[in-house]
Design brief:
Structural class: mainly beta
Order of helices and strands: EEEEEEEEEEE
Radius of gyration: 17 Å
Largest sheet: 7 strands, antiparallel
Length: 153
């Protein structure tokens, strides 16, 4: 099964908020890397989901206690070529006088030399605290249609 560079893939380049001011939003947003016009139900042999977790925390500058503690979990189905139901869930806590925004951005999917589609993504985090200022962090990685994934540092 394998895709090629000329396989028309439905749009995969998206940006959405997952956490806004410490509250969950848009948890149902998902991306599929499939041939244009097809749905996950049209493609056989799905496996997974595979889940990759990132842990994010911030300490108070003044009190050295944890003020933000979140687990970010990226999950997707795979069938050896394509990616289905790619999404991010976020769960955790934000203490008073602190806040966190999390957004997910996916890039254009493309096949590797073996026809396995890859979906680049970035998780953007913006944390701030009344006593500790602002901090922006971006996590970059790739999800693969064979269930693999890799961090881009």
């Amino acid at each position: 099964m394998g895709g090629t560079a000329d396989t028309a893939i439905s749009a995969t380049k998206l940006l959405w908020d997952v956490v806004k001011d410490g509250m969950k939003v848009n948890e149902g947003t998902a991306v599929n890397v499939l041939p244009a016009g097809l749905s996950v139900r049209d493609i056989p042999d799905w496996q997974g989901p595979v889940t990759l977790s990132e842990f994010y925390s911030e300490l108070s500058f003044l009190f050295e206690s944890e003020i933000i503690d979140f687990t970010l979990a990226v999950s997707w189905l795979y069938n050896g070529t394509y990616i289905g139901n790619f999404h991010l869930t976020a769960d955790g806590s934000v203490q008073i006088l602190s806040s966190l925004n999390v957004s997910m951005e996916t890039g254009d999917a493309y096949p590797d030399a073996d026809g396995v589609f890859q979906l680049p993504y970035s998780i953007h985090l913006h944390a701030w605290n009344l006593t500790g200022g602002n901090k922006r962090t971006t996590i970059r990685a790739i999800a693969r249609g064979d269930g693999g994934g890799m961090s881009l540092g």
